[in-house]
């Protein structure tokens, strides 16, 4: 049997986003039977304090609970770790210093995705938590791939906030309404590509298929996991 | 914050069934924010040899890889373990002897579900792998709740086999067709309730809503997890 690297997932941020991420890992894998899928250990403990408000208010309380999860995965023998929560990547460097396994970076996964696009987007709008935006998790890496990065104005950001908290509370239809309205405003502001840079947003925009191109950071990270575990040849092609 | 027990999941059998199970755990939990969801460690390693063919052919090779997963969860400090694979419960007793955590039994979860039904079913048809049926994982416990248990004939079982392998290969529409045809044959044979006793089957029958009542063993096990972690009061009501 083809050798597969064991991947650790620091999940639970939030639980629905973790489920969406796991199903994207399955879709990205070429497999006919259970045994061909990639092996994962998932730390799905949602008691980690809110990451976005911590960044906004200068608190550090998510760090130690995340490090505890990372160390549990490391002790289980994983070779790579993925964190399906964009905002949590604010702590990526410090978490990496606390473990032996390599922690994939979601913005690197997105940057890889952009370099593989037939036609590069001109203006990418970042749909994310306030913490992801003020923490600068994407800005520099995205500017290398697109001409312009668009940050939502306050009214649009309020809609994005509502979509994210809606998914976390399992109120999917309210979340869908807010996310769709925000996407429309960003298209009107000139974005030809929307980066879903919060793992709750693909859940809220799963039916969105008009206007700007959707780039899903969750899917980019899922594909990076499969690539790390089994290599490019055992991946499903995009589409 | 309300205290929650850490739950271990021995998943990966198969990966899609694990994702379906995790989303049913989320749906069964009353929660408005991430932190109110129940904490899980998921051993999602699909390299465990096929359980059904092992039972059919008198092999024991799934046992040690499952025990390794159970021990990893035990070492991580989980209080309860759930196994979202009906067939794997053939080894339930031996796995339980290998760990400190209590392993919930999926047939107990289903039996609890039946006792809470307003009107008990008369004839329950068991839709499962051949291993689950020949291993007798359900028969005794179900006979305590229903007048009659119906085991599919060979033609119907072939359709059920096809539905299960279809989900494992991520060929959902072919799986849906086979499962729907099998469900129709069991209704014709007099079943007023179909027990989906293989965790792949709810994925294939998610849109089925006519004829006999559907009883989903995955959902019963998900509810048992939430009950074990936070108690009845923090559960969503059925519906």
Automatic annotation (TrEMBL), chains A, B:
MF terms (GO), sorted A to Z: amino-acid racemase activity
Keyword Isomerase in annotation = yes
**Keywords carried by this UniProt record:** Isomerase, Plasmid
Q: Does the keyword Isomerase apply?
A: yes
Q: What's the protein here called?
A: Aspartate racemase
Q: Which Pfam families match?
A: Asp_Glu_race
User: Which InterPro entries did the record assign?
Assistant: Asp/Glu/hydantoin_racemase (IPR015942), Asp/Glu_race (IPR001920), Asp_race (IPR004380)
Which family is annotated? Belongs to the aspartate/glutamate racemases family.
């Amino acid at each position: 049997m083809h050798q597969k690297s064991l991947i650790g997932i620091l999940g639970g941020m939030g639980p629905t986003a973790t489920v969406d991420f796991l199903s994207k890992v399955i879709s990205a894998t070429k497999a006919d039977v259970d045994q061909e899928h990639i092996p994962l250990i998932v730390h799905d403990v949602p008691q980690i304090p809110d990451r976005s408000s911590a960044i906004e208010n200068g608190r550090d309380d998510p760090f130690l609970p995340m490090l505890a999860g990372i160390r549990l995965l490391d002790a289980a023998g994983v070779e790579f770790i993925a964190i399906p929560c964009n905002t949590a990547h604010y702590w990526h460097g410090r978490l990496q210093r606390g473990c032996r396994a390599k922690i994939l970076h979601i913005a690197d996964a997105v940057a890889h995705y952009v370099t593989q696009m037939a036609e590069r987007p001109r203006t990418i709008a970042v749909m994310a938590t306030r913490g992801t935006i003020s923490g600068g998790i994407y800005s520099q890496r995205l500017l290398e791939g697109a001409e312009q990065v668009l940050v939502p104005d306050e009214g649009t950001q309020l809609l994005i906030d509502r979509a994210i908290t809606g998914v976390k509370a399992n109120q999917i239809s309210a979340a869908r309404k807010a996310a769709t309205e925000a996407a429309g405003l960003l298209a009107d502001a000139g974005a030809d590509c929307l980066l879903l840079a919060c793992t709750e947003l693909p859940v809220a925009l799963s039916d969105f298929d008009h206007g700007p191109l959707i780039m899903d950071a969750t899917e980019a990270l899922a594909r990076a996991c499969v690539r790390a575990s089994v290599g490019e040849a055992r991946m499903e092609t995009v589409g």
